[in-house]
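Dear colleagues,

As part of the handover before I leave the project, I'm documenting each prediction I ran so the next person doesn't have to rerun anything. This entry is a single chain, and its sequence is reproduced below.
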Amino acid sequence: MSKLTTTKCHKHVIKDIYVFEQSAKAFMFVGYCPQTLDYYLVLYEKALKSFPHIKFEDCECDKVSKSSFRYGFTILTFNLKLNQVTKKIKGWNTYNKEHLDFNW
């Protein structure tokens, strides 16, 4: 695990899954944190706890560029298959695509 895991910055990670017709997309949001490879690795390690199959090269790391409430947040996102979100996943919020109100 990265040495950054002790920073206060990522203690409140928002974890959302948005379900579309053919797939789903997971998002991890952290408010105003460094956008560095080390920090993205910390978020990736947290995502692995719920989705051990994801690979880092399949993740997208960025900053929220447009949102009414998450502007500037650091983001890690990855795709999921619909069969991976058929039940409630502990610690994750699940929404339909209409709630997607941000850009990155």
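Residues 37-50 form the longest helix (14 residues). Strands lie at 14-19, 24-30, 60-63, 66-67, 74-80, 93-96, 102-103.

All the best with the project,
I.
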